Amino acid sequence: MPISSIFRPKVISEFKSRYSGQILVKQDWTHEYVTTGNLTQSGGLVKDVWQPVIKKYGQKNKSWLILGLATGTAAKLIPQPAQITGVEIDPVMLRIGRQYFDLDKIPNLKILNLDAKSYLLKTKDKFNVILIDLYLGDQVPEFVYSPKFLEKLGQLGQLVIFNHLFYDDAKRQKAEELIKKLKRIFKKIELVRVLTNLVIIARHV
User: Fold this and answer.
1) Angle of the 169-183 helix axis to the 147-156 helix axis, nearest 10
2) Cβ-based neighbour number of residue 135 at 10 Å
3) For residue 85, which phi and psi values (nearest 5 degrees)?
4) Which regions in the chain score pLDDT beneath 70?
């Protein structure tokens, strides 16, 4: 067996999704994770993005909304006890989460298989923290940048945190566009670079 094959991640399962295309569940020496195309969508690097942010801002006995639950990577990092609502449009991601990542074992997690835009614009529930991790492939859906969506986030969330790719000119430009719009709604914006991502933290106080 070639040495390179020993270190290469192993594909343990493959799925097809109308939203995400081909989804692969992979395993390396230390953990399992999910990829679509060349991007990690759950586990692995996604945990590395969210872990320092949730460690800094997360507190027990808070209400959380996750838009883009996927297989539950961010939800697992939230300090318990908590009240967590996770919204995920892709039933295949939820199936993978249940089968490989113990999604159903996360305490105090209410899972909604819904479109994030429709859910947010209709709900009247308010949250201490809202996490936005919405992607179709390597693109953030355009509705995320709309004033209507962002203003509703500002109404519902005390602290709103975005995970935004930041590795090429187009994604940096979109992130900068988002930041400008957020500054009109929130009093304080903090930016944190993590790997190839930009985490945008928006607060009212």
Assistant:
1) 60
2) 19
3) -115, 120
4) 1-7
